Structure formats: structure tokens, C-alpha cells
Amino acid sequence: MIWTEKYRPKSFEDVIGNGKAKKEIETWVDNWKNNQVQKPLLLIGPAGIGKTTMAHIIANEFSEYVELNASDERRYDDIKRTIGESSNTQSLFKKGHKLIILDEIDGMHGTNDRGGTKAIGNIIKETKHPMVMMANDFYSKRLTSIKPKTLVIKMNKVHTNSINALLKKIAIKEGIDSDPQVIKQLALNSNGDMRYALNTFQATSEGSRTLTMDDLAEVSKKDNVSTIFDAVQRVLKSKDLVKVKEALRLDEDPTLVLEYISENIPREYEKKSELKKAYDMVSKADVYFSRARNTRNYIYWRYASDFMGVGVASSKDETYKKFTKLTGPTAFTYMGRTKGKRVLRDSIAGKISEKLHISNSEAIATFPYFEAMFEDDELAWDISDFLSLDDDEIKRFRKKKISKKVITKKEKEKAETLTKHKLTGSVNENKLFDSLDIKNSKTNNKKKQTSDDKRISSKDKKKSESDDKDKKVSRQTSLFNFQ
Amino acid sequence: MNGPWVEKYRPQSLDEIVGQNHVTDRLKKYIGNDDGMPNLMFTGPAGVGKTTTALALVKSAIGKYWRQNLLELNASDARGIDTVRTNIKDFCRLKPVGAPFKIVFLDEVDNMTKDAQHALRREMEMYTKTAVFILSCNYSSKIIDPIQSRCAIFRFTPIKGQEIINRLKTIADEEEVEYEDSAIESIVYFAEGDMRKAINILQASASIGDKINNDTIYEVISKAKPQDVTDMITKALTGDFMGSREILREILILQGTSGEDLINQIYRDVSRRAMEGNMDSEVYINLIDGIANTDFRIREGANPRIQLEAMLIKFL
Lengths: 483, 316
Known about the structure:
The structure holds two protein chains of two kinds. By secondary structure, chain A is mainly alpha-helical. Chain A folds into four domains: 18-154, P-loop containing nucleotide triphosphate hydrolases (Rossmann fold); 160-222, Helicase, Ruva Protein, domain 3 (Orthogonal Bundle), CATH 1.10.8; 224-333; 407-483, no CATH class. Chain A is built from 23 helices and seven strands. In chain A, the strands form two sheets. Chain A has a five-stranded parallel sheet, sandwiched between helices. In chain A, α5 (116-126) links the parallel β3 and β4. Chain A starts with a helix and ends with a helix. Chain B is of the alpha/beta class. In chain B, 57% of the residues lie in helices and 9% in strands. Chain B has a five-stranded parallel sheet with strand order 2-3-4-1-5, sandwiched between helices. In chain B, β3 (102-107), α5 and β4 (131-137) form a beta-alpha-beta unit. In chain B, α4 runs parallel beside α5. Classes of the chains: A mainly alpha, B alpha/beta. The interface between A and B is large, with 73 and 75 residues.
């Protein structure tokens, strides 16, 4: 039997790590049992930390469950068919709730999953049953519309000490003879991925009933990154043409190798002339990579490889006798670190560009102006309302929250204007055309308002009143103008 | 609506548009004309009213159901020509409803590649019966001839200082904010004929102080200025390559500035330094050589980050 199944926790108590998440989930289950309707759960976290396990433990608490997995096609219709029907019907024979489980909802893509996100949104809206969804990537675009409608629970990597303890327990149960040091190393290698730890443990110890450092080395041997570092090391430390060319023969994307070389040149080379020469070579290599890509003549790769290998190696006057700690491309880690900010930036830019009819890049260029405008509480509310910004997006422009007083006041005003429109019946189906007329009436009338400099609430009310009156007149005039 | 003033005070009809009479007068002839409208191309710098004019024209030419019969696309946002084409195809396939014709408004066409422009040209031919295309760009020279010859070209000019002043004052009065005349003049100076920028500065400085004066204006301007580029170049010139590289990544990755845009800013900054007398001719021309090479390579399709890193090394 596969150990990941054999040792899968059966109850909340068995689950290792994520204490806080566990508690939140237990309350959620208890509330359902007391027939209090709860928002759907969304478990977010990296692979192998027990999201699916958690979902199945939850399922044990309910009388029935349906599950849809990543391996199934998740077109709109499919989701509707499998879950949609059961989502708002109740079982005849069994009492209690039916749990709906949707795994890897951020993994939906392509034509086979067309409309999937929308279907999930609909199910969330319609269902009377408890629902649990799982996803890996907190910042996935597919989750943006789903997240606000759910109770998001972030699950973290399991601490290596906890994994270590679990592995030791299993070793005893399975009667495996192993050095504690080796088990600790395996726990470290797993990097919080429990499934990886268990699978590796079983694969290496099965048959021999022992686990040694050599076994572990055998498993982690296929680690390509180390060979990239070897190649970079050779390029920076050697001036030997044959050795450098040989080192660059590796089974890796060469443009990635270029990133590693370019990252580490300034850590090794010290003289300005060397740096200039070396980067000239990097730049040339990059040019040939792009030519290869654009013309699909991948024969150019060999030139790129020579420029970034022999070219960079021969840029130094002589080899440095020092130890240099090499690192992976920091630009990539920077991209990873800033992903949340960038997703936020793009979603705001998208909203601005739609409302203000400008491109995304131009929208980003206007951010500083918005920062200034957001210093005013009421204007901050107005603009957020106009662009439909959510709380995170507002935070991008101002650190302080908009004060509750302003929010309640503004929301009241908005509601009042809306009801007034409804009463007078001046809002017709073509709303956008109305906004055009408001603008016209304002300029036609050039009405001077006589309230003082402080923006008082009555001002907005008055404006909407006068707008209402002017609207019909101005529509006639504007049509007249057009013909 | 109390949102951004650029939208609140966007002119809604051709008559309200400021400073482009030579364009709007000609455009008015198309309205109510039974012969329909040719394809149009609006060229001119940013913030002079190209989009506003297009929207106003659409509203008066199409009438009540303009929203349903207009497709607005930004060529620099739509990822690749395929998106543009499918969007246009889906939109143009059906007959116009409640309107004499449909309108496709395509912004920033000069950001499209030559290949994409050729593809666009075929779309324009295919749907001549149902749709009118309005293209907008900064430089008509970047548009391929076959497209130019299929369009009536309208050139927008930077808006004159006095006209921007009048508009800003009208808005300020309407919003009941106090201002100093000299402050309005400084806005006009910084805006360089760009009305959108001018109005953004006006609203931003109105919201950080009780009164619009030179202090609030400078506060806003200094926030919006690309200070990072200057820092990055200074760091490189003084030998701090790692620090300079750090800023480069922030600009490219976090701020999302494109390689082409950044190289424009670098060129402007370096030549400003030279004009201020802080640079030897020989040093200057060496830097320009590096910038020119990098520019060419980026436009040719190379990786902007790697190319710009290699260029900053030359500044050491």
C-alpha cells in the first residue's frame, strides 16, 4: 500500500501542522452542523501539505459528498451537470448536508475548461450545501473573482521538524533501520512537502528496509540546478577554451544559463574593463538568442553559447584566486517576490484604462496623481467607487483606511441619489447616454452653486436635483445639435 | 459622478473640444451625411483629445445606441494581433443594430508591429460594408503606407497654453477650489500641451491642500517625476553597478515600464546632464553609442533586462 494513503490522517487530530487553519476549519464544520449557513471554504497552499487530506476529513463529518478533480474536464456544462444539480437539491433519504469538493480550481485553463470559473461563481451563488475548494496559487488571476465570495484559509508548508518526527514514527512502524541524520536530511530535502517526503522514503527504503545517505543522494541526483552552477563556475573561473565549451554542454535551456552567468559576473570580475567586455559578450549572446527565436533558426544558438561561454571567460585578464558564492538569477526571485504587487498593479491599471480610455501603461503612469488625490478622504471614496476598486487596491494609493464616517455618509448619499432617480423615472435603460446628458446640462447651464468652500453633503444632493430637471431639456437640445 | 476630473470634464460633443478646431470642423461634416464616413486616423501627442474626439464623434454619428455599436481596443494592451483580430471579427460579423454602421476604435496603433498592421489592413478591407475604423497613434510615420492610404488623416496639435489655462480655471471654478493664477501657469508649463496631464495635476494638487498654489503643484510634480531613472544613471556613473542594477529591475519588473519607454527616459536624462554642462563631449558620445546599440537590440527583439544591464556597465 502506498504510504501516502496508509498514513493519511483520518481526523483533525491526526493532521500535522497548520494549527490555526485547522481550528478555523473545525469551527466552520461545527457551524454547518448547527445548520448555520457558511461561506464556501477556499484552502490555498503549496503542493503536498494536506489540502486534499483536509477536504476528505471534512467530508467525513458530512453525510455525503461529491468531488470534482483536476483530471476531470471542467467545462461550464460539465461542472453544472456534476455539481450544479446536486448543489441545490437535498437528498431524499439521508438527512444533513452534502459536501461539494472542488480541487485545484486555479489549474483550470484552455478550451476544455472554458467557462469553468464562471460556473464555480454560479455554484457558489446557488448552492445550499457546504463547499470546499482547493488552490495552489494565492495570486492566480482565476481566483480574483472567487476569493471575495469565500472564506480563504491559507495553509503553510509543514515545518521540517514535524516532518522529521513523522518520518521517525513511520520508520519504527515499518521496521526500517536508519540513521536519524539521514531522516533529518530527507525532511530538509522535502522543503515542507509531506507527500514528497513520504514517497521518497518509501521508494528508497522498500526492499532493503534501510535508508542511507547514499540512497538519498541517488534520488536527488537529478538536480539540474547544480550542473548549471558547475557551468557558471567554469565560465567565470577558467580561461581554458576546451573546458569552458565542454562545461556549457548541458541539458538546460541556454537562455536560462545566460541568466545565471549574467547574474554572477559582477560577483567574480572586479576590473571595469573586464566587466565591460564580459557584458558586451552577454549582450551579443542575448541578441543571437532573440534572432534564433524570431527566425526559428536555432542554429544561431551555437554562436550565443560561444559568446556567453568562451567570450565571457576570456574577458578576464587572469583568473581570480578567491571564493565567490554564486547565486541563482536574482531577477527571477525578485519577480516572485513582487508578484502580488504586480498582480495588484495590473488589476488597478485594467480598471483605470477601461474607465478613462487609456492604455494600461499610461494608466500606471497616472498612479502618482491618484496617490495625491487619495489623500482626501471623500475624493478617495469617490474615485474608488467610480473605478470599483477593492480594499487591497485602495491600499495601494493610501495606507490609512478611509474613515468609517465618510464611507457611511457617502454610501447614504449614493443610495439617496439612486432612489431619487427611480422615483422621478428619469433613469432609462440607456444609462451611459444619461451620463452624457449630465455633462451637457452642466456646460449648457453653467450653473454657479452657492455653497461655501467646504464640500458639504447637501452640495451633491442639490447637484443631482438640478441634473434631474435639466436632463430632459438637454436631451432635446443635444439631439437637435447632432442633426 | 465625482470621480477623476479627466473623466468628469471630458467633452461630450465635438463643439466642446478645445484647441482642435481644424479637426473638429472637418469632422462635423461627416455627421448626418448619408454617404457615411471614411476610415479615420487621428495622429498627435498624448493628451490632446484624440480619444475624446473619437468618442464624441461616435456618439453623434451613431446616436442613441453608440455603446452597442462601438468596439474600443487598445493595441498596446491587446496581447498580439490574434486578440485584436478575433475581437474585430466577432464584432464586425454581425450587422449594426439601431445604427447606420459600426465603429472600431483602435488606440495606439503605432505600438503594433508591422506584421500586425498588415493583418489589420486585411480586417479593414474585409468589413468595409459594416464598419468604420478610427485609428489613433502618436506618429503617423510608424504606420504602414497601405493603412495610411485607406484613412482620412487628422493631425492633432498640442493644445495652446491659454486654452489649457481657460479650461483649468473653468474646472476649478466649477469644483469651487481656490487657486493662484501663477499656479495654473506652472501646471501649463509642466503639462507641455497635454490636457490630461494638466487636469490630473490640478485635481491631485487640489486634494493635498486647501488652495492650489505653487507649493502643492511642486509636491505633485515631484511625486510623478521618474526620479528612479536619474538615480539609476547616477549610481552607474559613480561605479555602483549592483545598486544601479537593483533600480533597473525595480523599474522594469515592479513598475512594469517597457524597455523602449525606459530607453527613451534614459536618453532624455543623459542628454539633460550633457546640456547642463556636466559632461565631457567624448564621455557623452560614448554613452550615446551604448544607448543607441541597446535601443536597436531591444527593438530587434532582444531581452530588455539583459541588454540594459549590459548598457549600464558601459556607464561605469
